[in-house]
Design goal:
Elements lengths: L1 H16 L1 H33 L30 H33 L5 H15 L3 H13 L8 E3 L3 E4 L2 E4 L1 E4 L3 H29 L5 H19 L4 E4 L2 E2 L4 E2 L2 E3 L1 H28 L2 H9 L4 H31 L11 H12 L2 H29 L6
Antiparallel strand pairs: 1-2, 2-3, 3-8, 4-5, 6-7
Helix pairs in contact: 3-8, 3-11, 4-8, 5-8, 6-7, 8-10, 9-10, 10-12, 11-12
Length: 393
């Protein structure tokens, strides 16, 4: 008996003296503690909800919403369900986030390059834009642009561009496309052209690396993307029509309206994030040794070609990581749309929360959606960063 106790004590001391075993034990205890803590909060929350006569769960998503949404990318009516309303809000969030990322990237790269220009005036103007935009809270900028757009003339006094585009305090009214039978084949031809252009581009890069001979990829890519869909579009009898807006006594009939809230939010996020991206791009360019530019100039390369082919590819390894953070910030900052009434996921979710009383479920949906968007964006940018990484030979 005594021997067995001594052996057990010896085994325990041996395990405790093993650093990896001790670390694993601590981690198991921490996980168990966290699990017990989460279980306590869940049980406590369920008990409180049941005490107030509230049934937890996501069944409320099938209940009718009974509220309107002024900007929707899919069919929606006030009789639609809470679930469909949240889907509309998610699509509105994705719309402003994707459009903002694209436009902020373009503005940021242009501003970052031009701020290094030898032209004194251009460099100073870009500097003023960057310093002013970065140091004013983005919420104030959103409200500022929204105030300007809602201060435009009323519907009766709309500013017109031609006979089909109208600008007023309710937004921009423009023609809406009507897709007819056969347009799906045109869209498929476009997607196939993009894929074919990608394959040809990979082949052209390998050919260039092996032989040093350039390939006119720009014109070939444009031909693959534009010509087949265009020829098919004409052959199918142009299966696309337009719903032209018509001005009535109090409003417009037909067409598609882009609300001032969407434009103000998109433009504010674009200029704000673009200012930060410009500094990231400028830092990336300055991180490249000046000898690279001098060597390119000595070989007779033009400044624009030097920037595109030599400086920017090397600077991207410095640009991509902080650029990812700016994309994530833009996506999360889109939730500030609630301040001006743009009905994104947070705004519509807040309405659903107030009508249904399912606060925990709605907040949980918000967290899952924004976490998924952030992780998806990070995964894509990490893949892109590894794809363009410089490989030593």
């Amino acid at each position: 008996m005594a021997n067995s106790r001594q052996e057990s004590g010896f085994q325990i001391r041996r395990i405790w003296s093993d650093e990896r075993a001790r670390s694993a034990l601590f981690q198991i205890l921490v996980v168990l503690g966290l699990a017990l803590l989460v279980a306590f909060f869940v049980a406590n929350t369920m008990a409180n909800l049941q005490a107030r006569g509230m049934e937890p769960g996501f069944g409320f998503l099938q209940d009718p919403a009974f509220f309107e949404i002024n900007q929707n990318l899919i069919e929606y009516a006030s009789t639609s369900t809470f679930g469909r309303a949240l889907v509309v809000g998610l699509l509105n969030t994705l719309l402003v986030s994707a459009a903002g990322i694209i436009s902020a990237t373009v503005i940021g790269f242009l501003a970052g390059v031009f701020r290094l220009s030898n032209n004194w005036l251009v460099g100073r103007l870009i500097g003023v834009y960057v310093e002013f935009t970065r140091n004013v809270p983005v919420l104030l900028q959103i409200i500022f642009w929204w105030s300007i757009l809602t201060g435009l003339p009323k519907v009766a006094d709309s500013l017109s561009i031609g006979n089909s585009l109208f600008l007023n305090n309710r937004g921009v009214r423009m023609p809406a496309p009507i897709l007819e039978n056969g347009f799906g084949w045109v869209a498929l031809a476009f997607l196939l052209g993009v894929f074919a252009s990608y394959l040809v581009g990979r082949w052209a890069r390998r050919r260039h690396m092996a032989t040093g001979q350039p390939f006119p990829m720009l014109w070939v890519g444009l031909g693959l993307v534009v010509l087949p869909p265009l020829l098919l579009f004409v052959a199918l009898g142009q299966p696309l029509d337009w719903d032209i807006p018509e001005k009535t006594r109090f409003n417009f009939r037909g067409g598609f309206n882009i609300t001032p809230e969407l434009v103000a939010l998109w433009w504010a996020l674009t200029t704000y994030t673009g200012a930060f991206i410009s500094e990231i791009v400028r830092a990336g360019i300055l991180s490249v040794s000046k000898g690279q530019s001098e060597a390119a100039h000595a070989l007779g390369l033009r400044p624009g070609l030097t920037m595109r082919k030599i400086i920017i590819p090397q600077a991207m390894r410095v640009i991509i990581p902080p650029l990812t953070s700016q994309y994530l910030n833009l996506t999360k900052n889109s939730s500030l749309a609630i301040a001006i009434g743009y009905q994104d996921l947070v705004s519509i979710g807040n309405t659903v929360l107030n009508q249904s009383g399912q606060a925990i479920e709605v907040v949980g949906i918000w967290m899952v959606v924004y976490l998924s968007l952030s992780l998806g964006t990070s995964a894509f940018m990490n893949w892109y960063n590894s794809h363009i990484a410089l490989v030593e030979r």
